[in-house]
Design brief:
- The chain is of the alpha/beta class and 747 residues long.
- The chain has three domains: 6-172 and 217-344, Aldolase class I (TIM Barrel), CATH 3.20.20.70; 352-442, Nucleotidyltransferase, domain 5 (2-Layer Sandwich), CATH 3.30.420; 468-615 and 677-726, Aldolase class I (TIM Barrel), CATH 3.20.20.
- 32% of the residues lie in helices and 20% in strands.
- The strands form five sheets. The protein has an eight-stranded parallel barrel, surrounded by five helices.
- Strand 2 (27-31), helix 2 (46-58) and strand 3 (62-67) form a beta-alpha-beta unit.
- It is globular and about 95 Å long.
Length: 747
């Protein structure tokens, strides 16, 4: 093998991190107390981090810090403070989701190695090229991709100096990561903020297909696909599980480490994955990777499958034999926990001691003899010791001047001044120089970075007298509404229109008022078709929920607006798109509340947009959702399903809340909220800010009832924006059963 695979392990707490090191992980990703996408994990404190870095690096293991959530405006000062501190540690990489954070890292923190989180939903070559503009060194690809798609993106990554990383083991999300709003809408726990309450694992009213857990996927495991991943050019194999305990982490990392070593030896990998069934699992599936998306990916039980698997694996002759086997498994689990406990206690994750001995006489250089657990070295001052000065050199004074050392992986344990002459002085400037030289050595020959002072952002002075109304449609039947739209009429393109490129080109050429609206997910050949569409049509403007398409639009000089599924929640994300991709405007996230929206500062010559009425998409999934609900005549998703399938159904949870499942031609499966989003308050709450307010008039079936036709509804929204005081109440009467909880709660 001409290259090595990285094994990247989860570290939800210090014990799990130690277990991963013990099992031979090459790198570990872990979160701090704030700004990471696993708030349910124990996580680590910043003070813990220094000792963890020292321990990991001693074992040739890298540490990546997860900052993979979207950031609201009021958090920017705290984020900068954290980045300032992290910049002076030896962390090996930051994993990020937020576009504003990407912008800040590129502009002010060039020393960081930046990784794109799976929350960025990276799944096409445009995404890779977009991320390369920010100096991103690696990207965690969407879990839904097959091996051929992974191979293509790994090749594009190499051409753009980006490594690819793939989840190979652990929980599967039903929705594309970064595009799931189910937990946010139902309970205010946003998955984009690390608070997902996993409603997809909940029990539902039994479906017609006889399933109680219709959204529950088996766990992902590509254990037997290691050679294919290697040959596809993947750099890092990533294990999911930051809420898992040390015994789980050790067992899975150890199994994968042996698998990698076996690949190196015999170029095949391991043939036995039984150890993976002895720790928490929901059974395993690798069918996303295989490109064989089938109903066998689901399991109608979200709990641990360990005992059930053991019972089904062998045909035990009697209940007594089965009981003996169960007891043996429990004993094996206990033995593993004992082994891990005994061995991780030997791994010291505390800071290293630092002993400093000072020596020298008047007119001689000051000598600092430094000893750590790993090394000893000397530093000499560049100016001599003096008999006069502002403050005599003593322990108290030195501790005060060297206190920054205690914020590294070391702490000052002892200062010995027995060999230093009495009543000596040295200029503060020289002490500062010695401190910086010492920090440089302790920090792995890395220069200290001064805190960043962000320039104060100015809000655009553009005053919008009155926001216009724009509408979104997806059917030719609604072309008559073009005359009703006062600002813009957007037409939703499907996820895949490979077989209908000419039809869509003719549609837009024949209807000049239509503005193309691109979805969030556009994979493989569908992406190539979308790029060809842009080249052939050369539209005056588009809306894109996909940064890959946005990148292509920028390259072609096409004006574009960032869509609401790009999760834009702060001023720096807007600057990111404006300065790096020549974006002309953006829809702000509907997850934000009134105050969070008010804080955002619009750049000059930039438009802000907001969707005030739309069906609420909760999930977008590449899997077929009908298998578990109403059944399907096909056992798996084939090449005709995306282009031809058109179905709809509902599921109901145990709180009697309904969810609408829809599959339309050319699109992936979506789950919609029962009630559509209607937010008329934002028009008054945040005046003179938005260029337009969008109403989504696509024919998406939900529990919201419209009492008038679409033309009359448009007229009522127009009247409301014109200041008609009676129109707001009338809109709420015309649209029966709507929701606005996200605007009230925020994230």
């Amino acid at each position: 093998m001409d290259r090595k695979l990285e094994l990247l392990a989860p570290g939800g707490d210090i014990e799990a991190i130690k277990a991963a090191i013990l099992a031979g992980a090459n790198a570990i990703y872990c979160g701090l107390d704030k700004f990471n996408a696993r708030n349910r994990a124990a996580n680590i404190s910043f003070d813990d981090l220094h000792g963890i870095l020292r321990l990991a690096h001693h074992h040739d293991c890298e540490i990546f810090i997860t900052l993979n959530i979207i950031i609201v405006e009021s958090e920017i000062p705290a984020l900068i403070t954290l980045l300032d501190k992290l910049a002076n540690t030896s962390v090996d990489g930051l994993i990020v989701q937020d576009l504003g954070m990407l912008y800040l890292l590129k502009k002010y923190y060039k020393s960081f190695d930046v990784h794109a989180s799976t929350q960025m939903t990276t799944h096409n070559r445009g995404h890779i090229k977009f991320l390369s503009q920010f100096g991103v060194s690696r990207v965690n690809l969407s879990r839904e991709l097959n091996i051929h798609e992974i191979k293509e993106l790994s090749s594009v990554g190499r051409d753009n100096q980006i490594l690819t990383e793939v989840f190979v083991h652990g929980s599967n999300c039903l929705s594309f990561s970064g595009l799931c709003y189910m937990s946010s809408v139902h309970g205010g726990n946003s998955g984009n903020r690390g608070r997902c309450s996993q409603p997809c694992r909940d029990q539902y009213v039994q479906t017609a297909a006889g399933k109680d857990y219709p959204l529950n996927l088996k766990d992902n495991s590509a254990f037997f696909d290691i050679k294919a991943l290697y040959e596809a050019g993947v750099y890092s194999l990533k294990i999911e599980g930051r809420i898992k305990k040390a015994d789980y982490v050790y067992a899975v990392v150890d199994a994968w480490k042996k698998n990698i070593q076996s690949l190196y030896r015999n170029q095949k990998g391991e043939t036995d994955n039984s150890v993976l069934y002895k720790v928490f699992n929901r059974d395993f599936s690798n069918t996303f990777l295989k490109g064989d998306i089938n109903k066998g990916m689901f399991i109608d039980n979200p709990r641990d499958n360990t005992i059930k698997h053991l019972s089904e694996e062998k045909a035990y002759a009697s209940a007594e034999e089965l009981e003996v086997a169960h007891l043996a498994l429990y004993q094996e689990k206990d033995d593993l926990k004992s082994y891990i406990k005994e061995n991780i206690i030997k791994l010291d994750a505390s800071k290293g001691y630092l002993n400093i001995s000072l020596s020298g006489e008047c007119d001689q250089p000051l000598k600092l003899s430094v000893k750590t657990p790993e090394a000893s070295f000397d530093l000499l001052s560049e100016v001599p010791l003096l008999k006069k000065g502002s403050e005599v050199l003593n322990k108290e004074m030195l501790l005060k001047r060297f206190k920054a050392i205690n914020e590294t992986a070391y702490y000052i344990n002892e200062i010995d001044m027995a060999h230093l002459g009495a009543d000596l002085f040295i200029p503060y400037k020289e002490l500062t120089s010695l401190k910086k030289r010492l920090l440089f050595i302790l920090n792995g020959s890395k220069e200290s970075i001064e805190p960043i002072i962000l320039p104060r952002l100015k809000k655009s002075e553009a005053h919008i007298e009155q926001a216009k109304l724009s509408i979104l449609i997806s059917s030719k039947d609604d072309f008559s509404l073009c005359d009703e739209a006062t600002e813009a009429i957007y037409f939703q393109l499907p996820n895949n229109f490979q077989n209908k490129l000419t039809e869509y080109l003719d549609l837009f050429r024949g209807n000049k008022k239509l503005i193309p609206w691109f979805p969030a997910v556009i994979i493989g050949d569908a992406y190539n078709t979308a790029v060809e569409f842009l080249s052939e049509l050369n539209p005056r403007r588009i809306v894109s929920n996909n940064t890959g398409i946005a990148y292509e639009a920028c390259q072609k000089g096409i004006d574009w607006i960032a869509g609401p599924q790009l999760n834009l929640t702060n001023s720096y994300s807007l600057l990111c798109l404006k300065e790096e991709l020549n974006c002309k405007g953006a829809f702000l996230s509907n997850e934000l509340n009134k105050n969070q929206l008010k804080w955002i500062k619009c750049p000059e010559d930039f438009e802000l947009h907001y969707s005030i009425y739309h069906p609420i998409v909760l999930m977008t999934s590449r899997q077929c959702l009908f298998h578990q609900v109403i059944g399907c005549e096909k056992n798996k998703v084939d090449e005709t399903c995306i282009s031809n399938c058109k179905k709809a159904t509902t599921i109901t949870n145990m709180k009697d809340e309904a969810f609408f499942i829809e599959k339309s031609e050319g699109n992936y499966h979506h789950i919609y909220n029962d009630s559509n989003y209607l937010n008329t308050a934002v028009v008054k709450d945040i005046p003179d800010t938005f260029s337009s307010f969008l109403i989504d008039l696509r024919d998406v079936k939900t529990g919201t009832n419209l009492k008038v036709d679409k033309q009359e509804l448009i007229q009522n929204f127009d009247d409301y924006l014109d200041g008609n005081i009676d129109s707001e109440q009338k809109l709420h009467e015309l649209l029966v059963s709507t929701a606005c909880e996200q605007y009230k709660k925020g994230i």
